[in-house]
Automatic annotation (TrEMBL):
The keyword Membrane applies. InterPro entries: 3-oxo-5_a-steroid_4-DH_C, SRD5A/TECR. GO terms for cellular component: membrane. It is found in: Membrane. PROSITE patterns: S5A_REDUCTASE (PS50244). Belongs to the steroid 5-alpha reductase family. This is 3-oxo-5-alpha-steroid 4-dehydrogenase-domain-containing protein. The chain crosses the membrane at residues 263-292. It is a multi-pass membrane protein. Residues 162-320 form the 3-oxo-5-alpha-steroid 4-dehydrogenase C-terminal domain. Keywords: Lipid biosynthesis, Lipid metabolism, Membrane, Oxidoreductase, Transmembrane, Transmembrane helix. Pfam families: Steroid_dh. GO terms for molecular function: oxidoreductase activity, acting on the CH-CH group of donors.
Amino acid sequence: MASPPSTLQVKVSPAKKKSSILRSLPFPLTFTFPPSPPPTVRDVKLAIAKAHPSLYTERQKISLPENSKALPDESSILFGSGGDVEVLVGDLGPQISWTTVFLVEYAGPLIIHPLIYHLPTLFYGKAVQHSALQKSVYAMVLLHFLKREFETLFVHRFSHATMPFRNIFKNSAHYHLLSGLLLAYDIYRPGFSEPSVAGTWRDNSTLLTGAWGVWAFAELSNLSTHLTVRNLRPAGTTTRAVPMGYGFSAPFNLAFPNYFFEIMGWTVVCAMSGSLAAGLFLVVSTVQMIVWAQKKHAAYKREFGDKYPRGRKAIFPGIL
């Protein structure tokens, strides 16, 4: 029986030399590791980043020559009998932290709504006597996105540290334009002002009080589910477990109750106002969350198998 090789060598070649960084590196790169335990993809990334700091770990995609799919960081490098292997490194481009992404996304409505609400003459050409409805929507929107900012800083733990910087513009557009500019401009206009809604169903104090109650329930329930998920993952890890407890178990029995409660909260804003802009944001957001929930729900089933609760739905109790 042949003895194991004294060293394990990883040859790193460029996947495609499209980026300026990959064109500038002296390929192939070769790194030598101790034979036990075998290095992981993460170890290879760290070695590349140490030799060439401009290609930091979050910017790298490591794959095999025969398969362009990215290898997970925790996977071990499989060596041939000679104790060497070749992998490809791709450049994912400049990265930005997910924390920064969410802070920027949610900051949009927090800036846009106060501007339009407090400076109506600038946007509508005249002053607006704000109705109780407008005041309620204004408070709900600000509280919702302040909660989102708080969760980003102190609650959420992300599986991936970064994403490509270029994506922040696409991600932010959803919030800055739909729940920011479009919703604010529509809901604070003179058509929803105190003189315009006086004596109509939009001026019903009982309706507004009920709306506040349902909205607060949805927001607090959403926060509760986020805290549950946070507690499943120790800090600094990517540990995954089947979430249980409020929202995840009966009577809701959902894989992603956070999405369900999010939809509930925006449904309240849409129903209490009758705003077309609120309706558009609700529809777009709901469709996107359904897509995310179904994809992640299927991944949960594959990952946890028999340990996953039978009968659990993805996003709507007993339906979907």
